[in-house]
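Example record

The entry below shows one chain as it appears in the dataset: sequence first, then structure tokens.
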Amino acid sequence: FAFGFSQSAAAMGAQLAGRRDPAFLIAQTPEQALGFASNPMTAMALRRDMGRFGLTLATEQGAVLAPDNNPLLAQRSGWQRLGYDRVAVALDRRFSGLSTVLTATHLREQDSLLGAQFGAGLGAVKSASWFVDAAARLEAGGGWSIGAAYRRGWTFAHTRTGFSGSGLVGSEAFAADIGKNGIFSGHDSFGLRIAQPLRVTSGSGLDLQLPSYFDYSTGAVSRYDSQRLNLAPTGRELDLEMRYAVPFQGGMIQTNLYMRRDPGNVATLADDYGLALRY
């Protein structure tokens, strides 16, 4: 049983399960990241061992970080904090060198849709999402390990003000990595991962009821028609990251080199490159 502050429920659940996930900074697994900027505040996790199986229940509360475009109302950080909470149930099992986990997650956002905020004129959307995650990691021997994860999501959204409307938004994310312990020495490690953060799938959007006919005799709108607001991006972000860690002076030096294609799923943005060095 664990409580956490400023820590995600997914990380706490992995700790209770004894999982040793590689330390990538940018190319995260779908379970580690919500798919949008957020700030976890409080979390709780409870785990029960049942022989070869393990059952974990985790809850988390935090804030979606949405850019504030109004300089008069923006906080000092320039971000709006929109509340969210999520509950996850995970079932894991080990098969010799293979560890697997299946997770179901419910995410509720008070004023956003997968981290995106809509203006009041478009209906001030709120949403509830269901995600199913499947992940596996194989310890292949000789220090080698291979991991893969996939997430599929369904988000039910509806407007609260302005134009009435609703919709079902599909999303998906994946990650795959390979690593090895003990390359140049007995204690160093190397890893390479490719990942796609959460992305709205094609055909997903909101059906808004928009005015289509104005009756001048009564001075009011007399007919509304449903119009689809497409939310699927044209870009597809792919993150490629390489990490290397080696012991040094009683601690550990770790380097992470990454490249992001279409950052934020925006096709017109240039590729993003970065390097981190930590001790």
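Notes for this example: The longest strand covers residues 79-95. The mean pLDDT is 88.
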